[in-house]
Amino acid sequence: MSAVRDRTANIARGSILVFVTLRNERVRLPYFLDYYRRMGVAHFLCVDNASNDGSAEYLAQQRDVSLWTTKASYKAARFGMDWINGLLLRHGIGHWCLTVDPDEFLIYPHCDTRPLRALTDWLDASGIRSFSAMLIDAYPRGFIGEQTYREGDDPFEIARWFDPANYTIQKNAEYGNLWIQGGPRGRAFFAQEPWKGPALNKIPLVKWSRQYVYVSSTHMLLPRSLNLVYDEDGGEKASGCLLHAKFLSTFADKAKEELDRGQHYSDSHEYRAYHAGLQDDPNLWTPHSRELGDWRQLEELGLISKGNWA
């Protein structure tokens, strides 16, 4: 990686940091940055993987962004996690670090009235080092490509619906993390092979330490104790979700680009499924879909939890 703008000297002690790898996400970046700024994020550490749509140029202009670029293989870098783990080790130690994609938006209990700092202060006081957030795919009512997404728009003004159920969950015997699958991608693109559907379990928010490392995306970490973000004795631990704004008008072009690049997991089988399923511009909405409300709605559905955080 080559540093384009290294502003990490400006990171204050205790700042909340966002880490992100991206390619050709220029149209998403203004809303993404503003969303997390409003939440209380102080600095963004970004790796741009050879974008040609102006993403790197835009990020380089942002005063709270440090930017690195690379033309190296995303696949060979363990799908970008080697780059992110390197930045976390160099700049994240002692900070609460949120690792997300440009189409992932953290929701947590009380997020409408309490900044992210309130959550991390409570986690610190409770001796909790990692915070889970299930990925929830949001989608429009109607064909995916029907409404054009424009730069700066709130994506959830278009993608306003989600699956309230239709999820499977199991425990990973090796790492101890939960493995969640299903949702609209499971039923629309992997109905015949649901076990091949994308994982929806994430542990994106971690108080970083020198001994930590992400093993596979943000699905699981080492040491394994960081993956125990759930209660097996009948109680509930606090958790959030990542609203996933993948299904916008930009999705078809993005899916084709990533399929052509062949840089994703398991010979890009996920993008092969997307490409096949997008031939008829599908409508993911069903009569069972639920329109997005606030965090309380997600708590009532059991998709997030306040746990002991009153």
From TrEMBL:
Top-level taxonomic group: Bacteria
Keywords assigned: Transferase
Gene Ontology molecular function terms on file: transferase activity
Pfam families per UniProt: Glyco_tranf_2_4 (PF13704)
Name this protein carries in UniProt: Glycosyltransferase family 2 protein
Origin species: Paracoccus suum
